[in-house]
Amino acid sequence: MTTKSAPHRLPNFCAGPATMPTEVLMRAQDELLDWQGRGLSVMEMSHRSKDYMAITAKAETQLRSLMEIPDNYKVLFLQGGASLQFSAIPLNLLNGGRADYLTTGAWSGKAIKEAQRYANLGLGDINLVATGKDNNFTDVPVPSDWNISDDAAYFHYCANETIHGLQIFEPPVVNAPLIVDMSSCILSQPIDVSKFGMIYAGAQKNIGPAGLVIIIIRDDLLGQASEWCPMLLNYEHQAEKESMSNTPATYSWYLAGLVFDWLEQQGGVAAIGKINQQKAALLYDTIDNSAFYHNPVAHKYRSIMNVPFTLADNSLDKEFLMQSEKAGLLNLKGHRDVGGMRASIYNAVPLEWVQLLVDFMLEFEKKYG
Ligand SMILES: *Cc1c(COP(=O)(O)O)cnc(C)c1O
């Protein structure tokens, strides 16, 4: 028997790679050298071995259950992050046709930029439906003003703009299959998967370590890839190969499974969703009840995962960041495109950490406000 002292873990508000549940890391530590008495680490296993296949099958079953993914969707565990899907999506689905893109911040902006490269080669048309650029992505243009195509192969948007702190809670109502980037909000609250053609998410925000991207795609969207689509980016091919066309990110995939165990223990997505609402409400209320702090995003689009805030006097930003770090509150610096501060409060951030942040903010305001 070894006795372990409580690990030194500080409140970490990093946007990504983000904090992981301490229990998950401790279990990974326990299993690191010797997985279930087999005498080897998961990262030393053949991805074709029976043990490893059981690990991946369990992770998929859990994700299907946590998100209530219907049977007519494939779940892929691939590499290349969310960013590589910006290229893979047109390669799989554009096929000389037309696609609609809604721009609501930095990430959906990058997605359309990648898609546009194919249109520039004459391989299809990319249509910008609307952009929130004019208001610095603090609001979403009203849907009645959107320039929607009649015949789009798909409609792409980002459900949660991690940098701008803007979240679209209700999926847009359009005829084309919805393709959504949920990198920073997947598993944060219940959603109806059947409303989407495809959901994708890099793992390093709400699922696990970097190196893994999860794709949930409806069967009928497979089999339309361009002939020049690389095999590794071809979703149909990867579905046939059960995400093992080549060596997958084996250890990240295993850790994702441990996070799914942890999520089940928390009571699942609906239960964690309630806590996420509380965390966000606590932080936004603190900001709104003060003239010292400010969040610019339209209320109905305020993200429950990423909360940017500024100080009335931005010459105090440096002091805020220095003192918060001294107080043991990590990674509160805002993204360089937005400035100020940002607190990312993903699933693995407990309510107590948000309370510590709020306490610090009130203290800081007392001193400098
Ligand atoms: C982090 C993030 C990405 C980029 O993810 P990578 O895995 O680094 O490619 C894309 N979209 C959103 C919404 C993100 O939060």
Helix content: 25-40%
Strand order of the largest sheet: 1-9-8-7-4-2-3
Beta-strand residue fraction: 5-15%
Number of strands: 12
Ligands: pyridoxal-5'-phosphate
- Overall 3D shape: globular
How many discrete structural domains? 2
The secondary-structure element order is: HHEHEHEEEEEEEHHHEEHEH
Annotated CATH topology of the largest domain: Aspartate Aminotransferase, domain 2
Number of helices: 9
| First-residue to last-residue Cα separation | 52 Å
Low-confidence stretches: none
Largest beta-sheet characterization: 7 strands, mixed
Question: What is the second-level CATH architecture of the largest domain?
Answer: 3-Layer(aba) Sandwich
Chain oligomer state: single chain
CATH class placement of the largest domain: Alpha Beta
Cα Rg: 21 Å
Task: Walk me through what this model shows.
With 369 residues, the protein is of the alpha/beta class. It has helices at 22-31, 50-67, 81-93, 106-120, 235-240, 250-265, 268-288, 317-326, 351-368; strands at residues 73-78, 98-103, 125-131, 154-158, 160-161, 166-167, 178-181, 198-202, 213-218, 293-294, 306-311, 341-344. The chain has a seven-stranded mixed β-sheet. Strands 10-11-12 form a three-stranded antiparallel β-sheet, covered by helices on one side. A two-stranded antiparallel ribbon has the order 5-6. A hairpin with a 4-residue loop joins strand 5 (160-161) and strand 6. Pyridoxal-5'-phosphate binds next to helix 3.
